[in-house]
Specification:
By secondary structure, this protein is of the alpha+beta class. It is 45% helix and 20% strand. It holds the Pfam family GGDEF.
């Protein structure tokens, strides 16, 4: 027991703090090539926190869930503790692919982190370049205890965030566009600033969509600004009808709109197509661009990338007309 590090038992107040505490404790108590906490969303697994020694598991690194050792653990195909991955036929393909990518995984440890409803949030994972002693399986109960701690902190932190969001919505009149009822530019920028840390903490999938209406100037010039106001309100109503509740929508000014959608990169293209189809049907067509929000790069880079893609789309739409 001399190699066991005494844990700091002060209750963590946020999920990211708890993740760092767990990874630091495991790295000190049960040294391996890498320990990490990951987020699983859709078809992607993203590293949130890590203690890495040569595996490249830095925060923000993403991989395909279908090719993850953790997937076999969560599905029950393989044990939570595998001292020698060569002894598990179900891991042959995954381990071989990892080795080809310069990541020799000879031992694996994993345990799930769950949402309150039992759905999978992510995993605690440990990997080692050499096999471990068979007796390492006795640590499974400790790993389950730590993942249960993270699940509990996740629930408390998620509830606190939701309460804070509801309070923010109740006091945000100064950040609302009076014409459309959407966030104005001030509200949009404050939302991004406020939520940046939360997205990094939980690793939620998200993308930014920037939109620019194609016909507002024509309506204003030919039918007057009252008709233009109706056009803008109809745009806002249409966007609300095809947007998930809680995903922020903003009118940044003039004919510019923006949103953050809680979807992964594989769903970003279909989302934009659905938005443009709905706006076309409403008679308020728009040019649009979308970009994935990375844990490392954050919202600012995604906004700039989506804005550039929106202007590319606008130019392409002009050529096609």
């Amino acid at each position: 027991m001399s190699n066991i590090v005494t844990a700091d038992l002060t209750p963590p107040r946020a999920f990211d703090q708890a993740c760092h505490m767990v990874v630091d404790y495991l790295a000190g108590s049960l040294p391996m090539g890498a320990w990490a906490v990951t987020r699983v969303a859709g078809e992607r697994q993203t590293v949130l926190v890590s203690d890495d020694h040569g595996f490249g598991l830095e925060p923000g690194v993403e991989g395909k869930w279908t090719m993850s050792i953790c997937r076999t653990m969560v599905s029950g195909e393989t044990p939570r503790v595998v001292p020698d991955t060569g002894s598990e036929p179900a891991l042959c393909d995954v381990v071989a692919t990892a080795a080809e990518n310069g990541m020799p995984v000879a031992a694996y440890v994993g345990t799930p982190i769950l949402f309150p409803d039992g759905d999978l949030f992510g995993t605690v994972i440990g990997i080692n370049p050499e096999p471990l002693d068979a007796g390492f399986v006795t640590n499974e109960s400790l790993l389950d205890l730590l993942s249960s701690l993270l699940s509990s902190v996740l629930e408390a932190d998620t509830n606190a965030v939701q309460s804070a969001r509801e309070l923010e919505r109740a006091v945000s009149d100064s950040e609302t566009d009076s014409l459309t009822g959407l966030l104005n530019r001030r509200g949009w920028e404050r939302w991004l600033s406020r939520e940046e840390e939360r997205f990094r903490r939980f690793g939620d999938p998200a993308c930014v969509v920037m939109m620019d209406l194609d016909g507002l100037k024509r309506v204003n010039d030919t039918e007057g600004h009252d008709a233009g106001d109706v056009y803008l309100r109809r745009t806002a109503e249409t966007l609300r009808s095809v947007t998930r509740r809680g995903d922020p929508l903003a009118r940044l000014g003039g004919d510019e709109f923006a949103m953050v959608a809680t979807v992964g990169p594989e769903d970003a293209g279909p989302l934009v197509a659905r938005l443009q189809e709905a706006l076309d049907a409403a008679g308020t067509p728009c040019s649009a661009g979308v970009a994935h929000v990375g844990i490392a790069s954050g919202f600012a880079e995604a906004v700039a990338e989506a804005d550039a893609r929106m202007y590319d789309d606008k130019r392409a739409r002009r050529v096609s007309r």
